[in-house]
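Predict the 3D structure for this chain.
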Amino acid sequence: MIETRIRIADAGEAVRRVLWVDGGSGVGQWNPEDGQFSVRRVDGGPESLQLLASGGFDAMLITCPLAGVSVEELLAKASLPVVVHDLGSSVETAIRLTKLGIFHYCEASADAQELSHYLELAAEEGGRSKLLEARREAPWSRFLVSAGPAMERVETVIRLVAKRRCTVLITGETGTGKEMVARAIHIASDRCQHQMVAVNCSALPANLIEAELFGHVKGAFTDASRDRVGLFEQANKSTIFLDEIGDMPLELQAKILRVLQDREFQRLGSSQTTRVDVRVIAATNVDLAERVRQGKFREDLYYRLNVVQIHVPALCERRGDIPVLAQHFVEKFCAEESIPLKRISPDAFGRLSVGVWPGNVRQLENAVEQAVALSGDRELLLPVDFPLTGITPAAEVIPISAHLPDGGIDFDRVVGDFERQIIEQALARTAGNKKQAAQILRLKRTTLTAKLKSLQATA
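Done. Predicted structure below.
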């Protein structure tokens, strides 16, 4: 069945041409006559693929579930922005489709106005930038400072899972900001009116961790002079964040599993069961699957925690964010110290951008705090304010192994290929910023530009 609905736009209005692939239950979910749309609706199957191939559409709406064709097949053929309205509202489906590059995912509860809004954004030039800008105006976005695409997937998954109850496992190196991601999820959730409870599992003494998490009754052990409410009970109606969950003692993991399965536990020394409504977010900087293979982490607990996984990239994978992160920390520390706002000089930004940060965002924050403290009354922060102590500099020497064959080589070609590889690496590291790439290579920007033109001419 094919149905065409057209609304004649008023003078000066742009008509958005939308291909609507409807799984059969989308009738009434969206009324295209309410917006500036010229719509072709199909039920799916080969005809939808043929229409995609013919072109002529500004955006596509897919109403899931589909029959006769898969969303993956449509996306493989689509060269236009896609909005998915999932009547099943599956978190797993949302994350999978987001990774495949859809423009926006709408849950079953989305109304006609919401669908029209995202389709208009999808169909207009610069719509993705406007979408990301709108997301970053949300209260939870203040926990995530970024300027490039590296954190876009993290932000998308946060938006998708925040209002769900599902357990989230956050992975990433030490210092990448896993707790900030957890706080963003909590603030974006319906539990935000209650304070999130954060627990560093590796910092709690092994002999006290059970009492800290679940509480105890008077007389449960020698120093238990009174009843105590544990952290899980404190997090009732809220969120508990279990940081460094991989360091939790094996014998305690069974009790964490019970809380995840049954939402109940017993205080230490008590036979009374306490029920809680708590959302669990865990984080780790180790490979939990490997810990499972080593027998150091329960497999059943691993699968209970790993319902939705969010990986936070290392700072070296998001170098384009270093300038905005550094300036953010400058503003933060100047406000805390009640001093006039300082600025970071371009040369200092260059120094920060070429560093290798094994401590990730936390190490960068520490370096900025030190610079603000030691710069005195000077407004401009200079490279000298960021000593390389604690910041591993990028390698100055690249190991080169060369073998000269008996038949000789084309010297210019070999040297040109090597030069091209180094320049491409510098541009990749700086997300295409030629000025920063030139700083990494210790070249003038004009020299780098000339080399790029020369290399392109010989390519």
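The chain is about 40% helix and 15% strand.
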